[in-house]
Amino acid sequence: MPKQNSITARERSRRALASVAAIAIIASGAIAGAVSFESPTPAFAQSAPAATAAPAQAGVRNQLPATFADVADKVKPAVVAVRVKIANVASDEDSLPTGDLSQLPPQLRELFRRFGQSRQPQVGMVLGSGFFISTDGYVVTNNHVVEQSGTVQVTTDDGRTLDAKVVGTDPKTDLALLKVTEGGNFPYVPLAKATPRVGDWVVAIGNPFGLGGTVTAGIVSARGRDIGESQYDDFLQIDAPINKGNSGGPTFNLNGEVVGVNTAIFSPSGGSIGLGFAIPADTVQSVVVQLEKDGKVTRGYLGIQIQPLSKELAEGLGLARDKGALVDNAEDGTPAADAGLKAGDVVTAVNGEPVSDARELSRRIAALQPGSKAELTYLRDGKQQTANVQLGAQSEEKTAQAATPPDHGSQLGLRLAPASSVPGVGDKGVVVIDVDPSGAAATKGIEVGD
Fold it and tell me: What pLDDT score was predicted for residue 50?
């Protein structure tokens, strides 16, 4: 048998409370690598059965399941292991001297010559998980599983290994759509239409550490988690054990519907400690439809810089509560500016749906198609107004469709807002809207309102 390489994974350090831990991207690989995929045509959008989560879940929410075997038996045939073979460039440790070798002793010159001739490209393997969403072979997985170019294969629950291609990827949500190149009638699973509640049972299935179909169970621990991966973070937090190699694998409700795609864990060691994060099914649905159609995702562009609305800012603006997104700036020539939005406005709803904070506004706008119209409800001078905006298209350069601007005061332990956003202060300078009691600013006597 070929010798298997040890499994590695990309990890990103994050600070949490008083301890240091890591957000680990849970695809595993023998050597860091890459893959290339093509674009499919999702029959999944038409063929997936309608979700029945709401009525069916009601009967099981208040009882402890005696076993998860029925759910596992129902969905395991649709879950696959994703393997990406990659040719790696030699690491810095393996690099040979370049240029004139004449100054080296003869023995070393001969050694480098022979080694250079015999050295072969290293082949690595990235291991992840995925699942069929249509009978004709469309597979959902994570972008970070297939983000580097290489050869992609999926292994089904019954042991078949099939070639696949990348249809499209969306790095901002860490999703990718694959298509098995071999025709067939594949078992598939539907995406849930109902969002699970905190406390609902879930079952995760995937390919941890390359071991193949593994079933774990737990509950939804939280919703709407922001782990700092992108401005569109809106993860389900689950405590069903997931590990490296589970990336791209599904998390199911007790009806066998996919409620999330496992993508990261929070861990000081890289192993499961019960803090896993999954991309919600509604995000998956909206992304894969576009990936199947265009191979990429286009997002609505509003053209404003926004910031969180703190309690102090809300009081300064004469607002009854700190719900909404404060407009920091409406860029000239953008849809927002054309619709009359300006600094100091507080956006409270999009198309009649309340907006709780700046991050939610960012996600709402991004979920809308370029060219579509959106009705924004906002407060100006304490009065509610509406604006009809025709959204533009977000390009790679346009990352501020509704993005919170960087807070340069964070290094000092404070948060700042433009003076123009607070009535009665004036147009010049900035206003302190929050102070970290343990930060440098607090030790110098700076207070909220300065």
Answer: 34
CATH numeric code, 11-50+74-84+126-294 = 2.40.10.120
Strands (E), 172-297: 175-180, 201-206, 214-225, 235-238, 250-252, 258-267, 276-280
Look at 35-39, 56-60, 118-122 and tell me which has the smallest mean pLDDT.
Answer: 35-39
Cβ atoms of 31 and 8 within 8 Å: the answer is yes
Q: Which of 136, 174, 239, 328 is catalytic?
A: 174
Query: Taking the domains of the chain in order of start, what are their residue ranges?
Result: 11-50+74-84+126-294, 300-393, 408-443
- Confidence category of residue 45, pLDDT binned at 50, 70, 90: very low
- Catalytic annotation, pick one of 129, 134, 144, 170: 144
> Cα–Cα distances in Å, from 404 out to 128, 307, 423, 449?
32, 5, 21, 21
Annotation marks residue 174 as catalytic: yes
If DSSP states are collapsed to H, E and C, what string results for 371-426? Answer: CCEEEEEEEECCEEEEEEEECEECCCCCCCCCECCCCHHHHHCEEEEEHHHCCCCC
Using alpha carbons, list the distances in angstroms from residue 168 to 42, 79, 263, 355, 408.
Answer: 12, 19, 17, 30, 35
pLDDT tens digits, one per residue of 331-383:
888 898 888 898 888 998 999 998 888 888 888 888 888 888 999 999 888 88
Q: Are 447 and 433 in contact (CB under 8 A)?
A: no
Mean pLDDT across the chain, nearest whole number?
77
CATH node for 300-393 = 2.30.42.10
pLDDT band at 51 (very low <50, low <70, confident <90, very high): very low
* Residue 113 contacts residue 97 (beta carbons within 8 Å): no
Question: Within 10 Å of residue 268's Cβ, how many Cβ atoms?
Answer: 13
DSSP letters, 64-94, are --S-SHHHHHHHGGGEEEEEEEEEEPPPGGG
Instruction: Give the model's confidence band at 395: pLDDT under 50 very low, under 70 low, under 90 confident, else very high.
Output: low
pTM for the full predicted model: 0.69
The residue annotated as part of the active site, out of 39, 134, 221, 247, is: 247
Measured CA to CA, the distance from residue 18 to residue 71 in angstroms comes to 39
How far is residue 3's CA from residue 159's CA, in Å, rounded to a whole number?
20
Q: Is 247 a catalytic residue?
A: yes
